[in-house]
Structure formats: structure tokens, C-alpha cells
Amino acid sequence: MAISKEQKLLDLIRTVIFCHYRILGLGNQLDAMSGEVPVWNILKSIINQPLTVPDLAKERGVSRQYIQKFVNSLVADGLVEKVHNEQHKRSYLIKATNRGADTFRQMNEDFLDAVTPLVKTLDKKEMELADNTLKQLTESIAGFESL
């Protein structure tokens, strides 16, 4: 019996969730990375272009309030700053500070060192295909507010 596209999609989603938890587990095993994945993730989003809190929340599929609390802690740590937004008076842009950019670069190096052993087990073209597939899935899911 052939497996339907819907079942294949559910299998893919389950695999992504399982992989997500494995990646978090890997991060938690490394002292330098423990608890830092969310910091790295936010900095990666704004390192080249400031974004608003609503933009960051939409990108992640979480509430604006959740991101706001997180951004407030990053501001307090001196990793990001709020800057005037010409497009919107009340929704300021979140921009990495010099300290935030330096922190991001160091974290990125640490993450690359941590995943280097995995490179031996993965094919570059397969990783690109998986990345593109996951990006398409992410965009498709974003269109369904009921999920």
C-alpha cells in the first residue's frame, strides 16, 4: 500500500520535532552553548538587518510578548539595542550592539566547532535539499493560522 503525501508530511513533521529536541540536547551538553541557542537565534536574525519585535515573533511563530521579554533581557545584557523605526512610531527596531555582534561571532564559531564531527556523516547536497524543504514547509505552515 502506497503512503499518501499527507502521511509523508506527518512523518517529516515528526522527524523535524525529534531532530529539534536532539539539537537542543546537543546544545545543552556543551557548556559554552547551554542556554545560548535562543540568544544566538535572535542575534542571527538581526545581525545584518534590524527587525521589530513583531517581525521576530512572526518569524518564529511565537507571541510578541514572548519575544519582548527575551529582547528586554538582551537589552539589559547589552547585546541588542532599540533604535528608532521610521516606518512605525511605536514599534522600534532591534539591532545588535557591537558587543552583540562580537558575541554572535564567537557563538557561531563555537557552534561550528560543535557540529564539525557531524559533517562527516552528512552529504552537502542532501543538507541543502533538507534545508530548502524545511524552509518551504515553514512558509507553508505560516499560511495556516489554525495550526
Structure description:
With 147 residues, the chain is mainly alpha-helical. It contains 6 helices and 3 strands, in the order H-H-E-H-H-E-E-H-H. It has helices at residues 5-29, 37-46, 53-60, 64-76, 98-119, 124-142; strands at 51-52, 80-83, 93-96. Helix 3 (53-60) crosses helix 4 (64-76). The chain is globular and about 60 Å long. The relative contact order is 0.11.
What's the arrangement of strands in the largest beta sheet?
1-3-2
**Unreliable segments of 5+ consecutive residues:** none
Total count of strands: 3
Contiguous helical run count = 6
Rg, Cα atoms, Å: 18 Å
Distance between the termini: 28 Å
What is the helical fraction, as a range of percent?
Answer: 55-70%
Strand content: 5-15%
* Overall pLDDT: 86
**What structural class is derived from the secondary structure elements?**
mainly alpha
Name the helix and strand elements from N-terminus to C-terminus, one letter apiece. HHEHHEEHH
Oligomer: single chain
Can you give keywords for this protein?
6 helices, 147 residues, single chain
